[in-house]
Write a structure and sequence with these properties.
Number of helices of chain A: 10
Largest sheet of chain A: none
Order of helices and strands of chain A: HHHHHHHHHH
Domain HTH tetR-type (chains A, B): 14-73
DNA-binding region (chains A, B): 36-55
Shape of chain A: elongated
Pfam family, one (chains A, B): TetR_C_43
Number of domains of chain A: 2
Structural class of chain A: mainly alpha
Radius of gyration of chain A: 19 Å
Helix content of chain A: over 70%
Oligomer: homodimer
Largest interface: A-B, 33 and 33 residues
Strand content of chain A: under 5%
Number of strands of chain A: 0
Keywords (chains A, B): DNA-binding, Transcription, Transcription regulation
Distance between the termini of chain A: 71 Å
InterPro entries (chains A, B): Homeodomain-like_sf, HTH-type_TetR-like_transc_reg, HTH_TetR, Tet_transcr_reg_TetR-rel_C_sf, TetR_SbtR-like_C
Chain lengths: 185, 185
DNA sequence: AGACAAACGGAGGGACACCCCATATCGTAG
DNA sequence: CTACGATATGGGGTGTCCCTCCGTTTGTCT
């Protein structure tokens, strides 16, 4: 009975699940986050009903698609939090922005997590916010940034930049630095 | 024959055209730029074929929907260009950002005009860029902004902010000023 | 008023999201 | 190794949407 309580999925379920996420990653990267779900199912070799059973909404699918990338970013933030507090924050924002600008759909995904209506656990945006907060606090401790700076706002700004510069990492970096430096001489 | 060359539309054509734009404005403001075109046609009391005959694409419809607002903004930029060069640019960016954040779909619309594949005349983004350029040059002439500042980049940044703060003008203003001031003390 | 061009709208094709239920498959107990 | 029951599947059905064709209506000009 104790064995039953650990709900383990059937192997074909796991196989299909992984395959769907894998195929979705490729198609989202190629065609954007609005790809037809039926196309994903077809490409994965499963019926559309199966896709909908695994992922009740497009959100749920995208969540898993981007989960790996967000986790990698989170770890990167951890590394930077062990380095120079002066440069860590800027490096982090730059890498985050470029990554989001390069990964089709990710910027919109992160930004969408910002104004999340329901309390649906730790979204990717929340993960990013926590990572950013640590780096902002460290930068503040050596007075490398203005006091009172809101990590949330800063993250949203970086997300905004990557949202508007999708597929153009050069522009992403340029706009981010414009925002970080301000417009006054 | 000379009279024929001035292509004048039939009165019912004009009536339907105006009504469609009017209804579309309301529905886009309420439901976003992705509203069903059929819903717009239904609400306007015309068949969907008529809508497609008047507007060959969703772009074409949105172009007319936002045209009035963009024109109003352009005039406002003209006013500001006659005032204080030090404050004009900031006021302009602020009003632009708040307006775009308040007008559902406008931010995405302006941003979409930035990387426009085909040479489709003067889009709204181009109109905004010209308005911004004048104010940036005036601000530069009194050294109120860093030399070398790109009006295009600055406009894109404002669009990015309004894109990510849709329906939240307070946040829009806050993020814009964050970007204008920079993060360093 | 009558004729002709201009504009209309219903209907239908193709694509999509999502759901129902008969069927197939997996894991296990005997 | 086999048979059984729970689990998972997928074809097909519904409703919506975009877009187009074509027979019909409406405006305009003489």
């Amino acid at each position: 009975m104790a064995k039953q309580q650990i709900r383990t999925q059937r192997t074909d379920w796991q196989r299909n699940h992984e395959r769907l996420v894998e195929v979705a990653s490729v198609l989202v990267a190629r065609d954007g986050a609005q790809v037809s779900l039926e196309k994903i199912a077809r490409e994965a070799g499963v019926g559309s009903a199966t896709l909908h059973r695994h992922f009740p909404s497009r959100r749920a699918l995208l969540e898993e698609v981007f989960q790996g990338i967000v986790e990698r970013l989170r770890r990167r933030a951890g590394e930077l939090a062990g380095g120079d507090p002066r440069t860590g924050l800027v490096t982090w924002l730059e890498e985050l922005t470029v990554c989001a600008a390069n990964t089709r759909g990710l910027a919109a995904w992160l930004a969408a997590g910002a104004d999340n209506d329901p309390p649906n656990g730790d979204t990717c945006h929340v993960v990013m916010r926590e990572a950013t907060t640590v780096l902002v606090e460290r930068a503040m401790s050596v007075a490398a940034v203005r006091p009172g700076l809101s990590p949330e706002d800063l993250l949203t700004l970086a997300e905004a930049v990557s949202l508007v510069t999708e597929d153009d990492p050069t522009a992403a970096r340029r706009l981010l630095h414009l925002a970080l430096d301000g417009v006054r001489p």
